[in-house]
Amino acid sequence: MRGLIAILFALYDGETPHNILAADPQALFAELGLNDHLTPQRSNGVASMIQRIRRDAEEALARAA
Predict the structure, then answer these.
(1) Spatial CB neighbours of 59, under 8 Å, sequence gap ≥ 6
(2) Angstrom distance (rounded) from CA 7 to CA 42
(3) 3-state SS string over the chain?
(4) Mind listing the pLDDT tens digit for each residue in 7-63?
(5) How far apart are CA 12 and CA 47, in angstroms?
(6) Does residue 1 surpass a pLDDT of 80?
(7) Who's near 35: CB < 8 A, 6+ residues apart?
(8) How confident is the model at residue 2 (pLDDT cuts 50, 70, 90)?
(9) pLDDT at 16
């Protein structure tokens, strides 16, 4: 799981909320062939992390408006 978190961290680190919302980490995981190696439980965990990050980005945009 640490490797998956590291990929998400590298994708999102230092990005603006707009860029975070535009990013497609699932496509990146598919491109890297990671989806074929994830158990359903880990896939759900990654999806939850992505949802949380996106929700935080949406909240940051709402506060800035």
Answers:
(1) none
(2) 14
(3) CHHHHHHHHHHHCCCCHHHHHHCCHHHHHHHHCCHHHCCHHHHHHHHHHHHHHHHHHHHHHHHHC
(4) 899 999 999 999 999 999 989 888 989 888 888 899 899 899 999 999 999 999 999
(5) 14
(6) no
(7) 26, 29, 43
(8) confident
(9) 95
**Looking at this protein, which amino acid is placed at residue 11?**
L
Tokens of 37: 């190696």
- Which residues does 21 contact at the CB level (< 8 Å), separation at least 6? 54, 57, 58, 61
* Residue in the structure block whose two tokens are 């408006």: 65
